[in-house]
From TrEMBL, chain A:
Single annotated GO MF: ATP binding
Localization of this protein: Cell membrane
Pfam family, one: ABC_tran
Keyword Endoplasmic reticulum: no
Keyword Glycosyltransferase: no
Name used for this protein in its record: ATP-binding cassette domain-containing protein
Membrane spanning stretches: 21-41, 53-77, 134-152, 158-175, 243-264, 276-294
Membrane topology qualifier: Multi-pass membrane protein
PANTHER family: ATP-BINDING CASSETTE SUB-FAMILY B MEMBER 10, MITOCHONDRIAL, ATP-DEPENDENT PERMEASE MDL1, MITOCHONDRIAL
Native organism: Secundilactobacillus folii
Length: 578, 600
């Protein structure tokens, strides 16, 4: 795990290395100060020797300036290193996600990927900075102080060695006891958030059914639960300070008694005695630092695991080397194709065979859950077949460069996603170099030109701010125009006109027919009327294709199709969608 | 700045009013604890000057008095430790109590707010008040406040002790102290500036990532990965830059303060030593030793004070947002007419109980209703129509024409600007909202369910309904088939987002939920989106069953609904442009005729 993360340090390596070095230097000087100060007292003040005071004093002053520089420098460089590291990590993570296949994306929820890219990496950044600075400072201060204490007086040294495990045990107990409680608190927060979220989204339902009191009661229980567990945890953590105080005070009392005895017995000098007080403080505070580091790192450990999980996920669709960079034509062939989503043994498609000629118009219809979207997703290789071959332009789709294939197979997805920015910027996803003339042409084909022209800013209308002015059906037509701009050889519409009225849809189909005769067109739909003129209609059932034929053929041979057609004729389903 | 002060005072008032006694005890404990700390430093002076030095000169050292002094010190120390235990425990509990009470207040308030509030505020933003803002506030109460006060007392007492020990050395300390303050202020001002910038950068990066990852499939379909990476890098680099400065200045604070302490330590040793040699009467060895110890307990609290000040300022921003929510005006409700049940029948009970009760029938009348949404300026103009009990009113028109808005007026999700709406002849403004809404049910297009069992979701509006009522509601909604297939049938727990259910099944749940309440008036929004034909037929059958024998307002998408409607209202741009039955409207060859052609 660590190795994966550390590979993102890269150009911030030297800041990472210099920080702990400076920290060690600073700690060493800090520990030397009381030692020299003891010399001032014992060899300068007591015997009244001014020159010792001046000489040692100058050294001490220089040392504290150096220590200040080192300390400030370590802080500065650690911040540079941590900020740089987290930038690289975000970069790597984001790029990794870009290489993901749909299958990989299905595995991670979008919101969880967002958290990993933001909160989790911020946690790691904090931990990293801590690791190269404070996590170095604590042990070096501890070690140096103990060494110095032993140098000054072995007896005092042993006193510290005895006290350390007592304090360490206490701090360990606090961390150990409170950790599971904090985990419980986080779960409590999930619950609390859920209640709030459900009430925000469903406020109309709550108000309609007058259930405010019941919801408030639900919330009270969650909030109370958090307060209970959190109080418990906080009360345990609150022992930290008195514990420190207790150990420091006790050490001082023992040290006072021991020191007095030693001084009177001429085994210790007053200045050395004073320096021991300072060392005791350093030792105890560095132990407290350990406790803090420990609890902080355990928080970021979960974050690190979540980030590494994404970084080590192998994208399962990659192009071959020497991949083909040209698609011959828009013909499609499914050759004994079987497909199931990974981790399931439920075959979505079983031994599917299908031939579609370049330039054909194909309708796909069937009930929900009959793998209509799955079928077409295999054509631009959004998923890979489990067995069999899908061919586009006579070639196995796995032989193409991914970009080539997806540029030639334009797919309009079921949910209309446009990005913030102007209409022009959004359309240009299809072709960055497109001229206004070309933009207007595709808008015309998608029957979107009239309403775009009617917008006050036309192509420059900002979609974010005018969400209100552009309806669902209009957004759908923009996504169609965006796909057309790629000038693909195959165009797939996955329920892309569901919110467009029948008349407009008919005009779109007509435009396809006259303007794009050579483009293979596949349409998934719920309406028979949309595909009545298609060259081929594919009826999907669970696990594959039930029937293929023209409208006339299917009306003769397929009972389900007949019934659907008649039901829709009677009801004339849909309509007033806009 | 003034705003922050106001927030602070309000918070303080809240704290003091609820926990006055506990706060007084805490304050006393804090003072005791700080005093014990200073006593420890002063003791070093006595230890050296009064005990150790005389003992070294004595021929027959008597350790008795020293032991006695250590005993007294032990008492002082341990009283200090106890005091720390007391205040840290009290503050830990108070923090949690406040946290719970603020959360409860927020939620109780939120439930009373008008829909306008929910339309205008981003959900993520509201949610973060419950978690982030309350958390920061609690940190403030359990940690920042006590530490700030402890540090304040420590500095004050240390300063007093220093003055008693040696005014000259105190002067040196004060000089260092002043320098420290200047450095601290400079550093915190810089880091605060970059922290704000960092916050903004995180926000931008967050929004970008959120949008891109939501559209990740489109990115793939368009092979747009490279372009997106380039855009991401801009946000990423901005964040790095702000983060390195923000953290750089902030983390430098502690080593600098620590080393200023070291500098003070050195200066005291050197200058104090020189002074002690030249004027032995002015300064004793014990005083220098005590000062050395005090210099430590002097510089650390100053760094702490400045750090806690920052935390306090940050928490005030969160507290401000919390108070803002608490101060939102609640949905106003001056209604006095209530719904009462007598036997099996429902009646309207006017405020004046001497007046006769009105039986609930379901007559709805809109007269000259005008309404405008504050932001979009869209709305309704002069809507007038009447629905007699049991009639079906179909609302047709394009998206955004005002169909949903019309129904929103009826249940008073929004209040009309002018005109009047009556329910059984009673102005709905005079009906208590709870009761008005109880006399209506609504089935929306996107169904919201709550985490809990299928049963609890069906009886959401009637929590006391028994199983047979739940099952018959499910039957009416044609939902029994799919419920019977669920692992635990009616006890199956679904999550709020109801991922396990298809959109058609969710709609059946919504129909069952409305059916169990059995109100005389229904508002239905027919679904259009991608549900397959079989499920759609089931949903429609459920809706038809729900409409029977009730006044129903249907936002219609199906021809059969329109055919059977008693009155069709064609709405365009917030106005009723045509009205009548299907046949009447067709003859007009107007707006309805156009729409009908789209339908057919």
């Amino acid at each position: 795990m660590l190795r994966t993360l550390l590979s993102s340090v890269r150009e911030y390596r030297w800041q990472t290395i210099i920080t702990p070095l400076m920290v060690v230097g600073e700690s060493a000087i800090e520990v030397l100060l009381p030692f020299l100060m003891a010399a001032i007292i014992d060899q300068g003040i007591q015997p009244g020797n001014m020159s010792v005071i001046i000489h040692v004093g100058i050294i001490l002053l220089l040392m504290s300036v150096v220590s200040l520089t080192l300390g400030a420098g370590a802080s500065w460089f650690s911040s540079q290193a941590a900020a740089g590291f987290s930038k690289n990590l975000r970069h790597d993570l984001f790029n990794q996600i870009q290489t993901f296949s749909f299958q990989n994306l299905d595995h991670f929820a979008t919101s969880s990927l967002v958290t990993r890219l933001t909160t989790d990496i911020t946690n790691i950044q904090t931990a990293y900075q801590m690791l190269i600075r404070i996590a170095v400072r604590a042990p070096s201060l501890l070690l140096f102080s103990i060494i110095m204490a032993f140098l000054v007086s072995a007896q005092a040294g042993w006193l510290f060695v005895c006290v350390i495990p007592i304090l360490a045990t206490g701090l360990f107990w606090i961390v150990k006891k409170s950790r599971p409680l904090f985990r419980q608190v986080f779960r409590g927060y999930d619950q609390l958030n859920r209640v709030v979220r459900e009430n925000l989204r469903g406020i109309r339902v709550v108000k309609t059914y007058g259930q405010q009191a019941a919801e408030i009661d639900k919330f009270h229980r969650s909030a109370h639960n958090i307060a209970q567990v959190f109080s418990h945890a906080q009360r345990i953590v609150a022992n930290n300070m008195p514990l420190m105080q207790f150990v420091i005070n006790t050490t001082m009392l023992i040290l006072s008694w021991m020191g007095a005895k030693l001084i009177v017995g001429h085994q210790l000098q007053v200045g050395q005695f004073v320096s021991l007080f300072t060392y005791s403080m350093s030792i105890l505070f560095s132990l407290n630092m350990f406790a803090m580091i420990f609890s902080q790192l355990s928080v970021s450990q979960a974050s690190a695991e979540r980030v590494v999980e994404v970084l080590t996920t192998k994208p399962d669709i990659v192009a071959k080397t020497n991949a083909i960079e040209d698609v011959a034509d828009g013909s499609i062939e499914f050759d004994h194709v079987t497909f199931s989503y990974p981790g399931t043994d439920d075959d979505q498609l079983k031994n599917v065979n299908l031939r579609i000629k370049a330039g054909a118009v194909v309708g796909i219809i069937g009930e929900t859950g009959t793998s209509k979207t799955t079928l077409v997703s295999l054509i631009p290789r959004l998923y890979d077949v489990t067995s069999g071959v899908v061919r586009v332009g006579g070639q196995d789709v796995r032989n193409y460069e991914l970009k080539t294939l997806r540029d030639q197979v334009a797919m309009v997805l079921q949910n209309t996603i446009l990005f913030s920015g102007t209409i022009r910027e959004n359309l240009k996803w299809g072709d960055a170099e497109a001229t206004d003339e070309q933009l207007n042409e595709v808008l015309q084909q998608a029957q979107a030109k009239d309403f775009v022209d009617a917008l006050p800013d036309g192509l420059d209308t900002n979609l974010e701010q005018t969400g209100q002015n552009v309806s669902g059906g209009q957004r759908q037509r923009l996504t169609i125009a965006r796909a057309l701009l790629k000038h693909p050889k195959i165009l797939i519409l996955d329920n892309a006109t569901s919110a467009t009225d029948s008349q407009t849809e008919a005009r779109i189909r007509q435009a396809f027919k006259t303007d794009l005769p050579n483009v293979t067109k596949l349409m998934i739909t719920q309406r028979v009327a949309s595909i009545i003129d298609a060259d081929q209609i594919i009826i999907m059932k669970r696990g594959g294709i039930e029937a293929v034929g023209t409208h006339e053929e299917l009306m003769q041979t397929n009972q389900w199709y007949q019934q659907l057609y008649q039901a829709q004729q009677k009801q004339s389903g849909g309509g007033d969608h806009e | 700045m003034n705003k922050r002060r106001e927030t602070f005072m309000r918070l303080l008032k809240m704290l003091v009013s609820d926990f006055k006694g506990w706060l007084v005890i805490s304050l006393i404990a804090i003072i005791l604890s700080a005093l014990a700390g200073v006593a420890g430093s002063l003791f070093i002076q006595r230890l050296i000057d009064h005990y150790i030095i005389p003992l070294t000169k004595a021929t027959d050292p008597n350790f008795g008095p020293l032991l006695f002094a250590l005993g007294i010190m032990a008492v002082i120390f341990y009283v200090g430790v106890m005091a720390t235990v007391v205040y840290s425990q009290i503050m830990a509990v108070i923090g949690q109590r406040i946290q719970e009470s603020i959360r409860d207040q927020m939620f109780e308030k939120m439930e009373t707010l008008p829909l306008r509030f929910f339309d205008q505020n981003d959900y993520g933003n509201i949610m973060s008040r419950y978690t982030n803002d309350v958390d920061t506030l609690m940190q403030l109460i359990t940690q920042s406040f006590p530490q700030f006060i402890v540090a304040l007392f420590n500095v004050t007492f240390a300063l007093a002790a220093m003055l008693v020990l040696s005014p000259v050395l105190t002067l040196i300390s004060l000089a260092i102290f002043a320098t420290s303050i200047v450095i601290v202020r400079w550093l915190t001002a810089h880091s605060a500036k970059y922290f704000r910038a960092q916050q903004a950068s995180i926000g931008k990066l967050n929004a970008f990532v959120e949008e891109m990852l939501n559209g990740e499939r489109v990115i793939k379909v368009f092979s747009h990965e490279k372009e997106v990476q380039v855009d991401f890098e801009v946000h990423n680099e901005n964040l790095r830059n702000d983060a390195r400065y923000a953290n750089g200045f902030a983390t430098m604070l502690f080593p600098i303060m620590g080393n200023m302490g070291n500098l003070l330590y050195v200066l005291i040793a050197v200058l104090g030593g020189g002074l002690a040699i030249m004027h032995p009467t002015l300064l004793t060895l014990g005083t220098i030793a005590a000062f050395l110890q005090l210099s430590r307990s002097f510089s650390q609290p100053i760094a702490q004070i400045s750090q806690q000040l920052n935390a306090i300022v940050q928490a005030m921003a969160g507290a401000g947002r919390i108070f803002q929510l608490l101060d939102e005006p609640a949905e106003d409700d001056q209604g006095t007419t209530t719904l009462v049940k007598d036997g099996e029948s429902w009646y309207w009970q006017l405020a004046d109980t001497s007046l006769p009760r009105v039986p609930v029938k379901g007559d709805i009348c809109f007269s000259h209703v005008n309404f405008t949404y504050p932001q979009t300026k869209a709305g309704l103009h002069d809507i007038t129509f009447e629905a007699k009990a049991g009639e079906k009113i179909a609302l047709v028109g394009e998206t955004g024409a005002g169909k949903t808005t019309t129904t929103n007026m009826l249940n008073r999700f929004y209040d009309i600007d002018s005109g009047q709406i009556t329910y059984d002849g009673i102005d709905i403004k005079t009906i208590r909202k709870r009761d008005l809404r109880h006399a209506l049910a609504i089935v929306l297009q996107d169904t919201h369910l709550f985490t809990g069992t299928i049963r609890d979701n069906i009886r959401y509006g009637e929590p006391n309904a028994d199983d047979s009522a739940v099952i018959s509601a499910a039957e009416l909604a044609r939902a029994t088939d799919f419920i019977d297939e669920l692992p635990a049938e009616y006890d199956t727990v679904i999550t709020g987002d109801g991922d396990a259910l298809s959109s058609g099944q969710r709609q059946m749940m919504a129909i069952a939920r409305a059916a169990i309440v059995d109100p005389p008036v229904m508002i239905l929004d027919e679904a259009t989106s991608n549900i397959d034909t079989r499920t759609e037929r089931l949903v429609q059958a459920g809706m038809d069953a729900l409409m029977a024998n009730r006044t129903t307002f249907v936002i219609a998408h199906r021809l059969s609904t329109v055919f059977n409607a008693d009155l069709i209202l064609v709405i365009d741009n917030g106005r009723i442009v045509e009205r009548g039955t299907h046949e009447e409207l067709l003859k007009l060859h107007g707006r309805y005729f156009e729409l009908y052609q789209g339908l057919a």
